[in-house]
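The data layer described in this paper is built around a simple, fixed record for each protein. We quote a single record here, exactly as it is kept in our systems:
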Amino acid sequence: MYEPNVVGDWQEYDEHAGLRVRVHRLEAAEPPRGRDDAAEGLTYFRVRVTVENRGSRHATVHLEDGQIDVRIGPDGESAFIDWRNSQFIEGFDVYPLRRATAVLYAAGPEASLSQVDVQVQLRADDEWAERRLWAGGIGLKEGAVGTGAVRDGLACQVSNFLRDQAEEGTA
């Protein structure tokens, strides 16, 4: 079992040398082409997923609908994904030292947005990578250590867990 990443962390893939992915900029935001009628009463947010190539050769990257799953709240309910406003990576050649970013617009009840889990399954050169999970929330800063009301948040718990694991491994 692997540990989840905190929003803002990079995840490197062993099966795709040099490729790494990051879920970042989890923030409240209105979609550029207007709200979907099905999202009435929900709060919109935006999340970016960036693929970076630090390898020596290019990779054809796919990060499309169905490869990004967004869950919200303590029960992990599915967020509403606004496919019309979202921008995906569809067969883009990412050359060494270059990046490509997908921008996903989603919505959910405002009370559930303090816990957001984003699961990504990258496909590069027609090979699937393992699914990876990032945990965060709207209103939490990337890499927040947790002060005040944020202290008990999921992102802070995950961050503390990962820091404790790293400290144990280095001792």
Q: What stands out?
A: Residues 143-151 have pLDDT under 50 and may be disordered. Helices lie at 154-170. The first strand starts at residue 5 and ends at 6. The chain is about 10% helix and 40% strand.
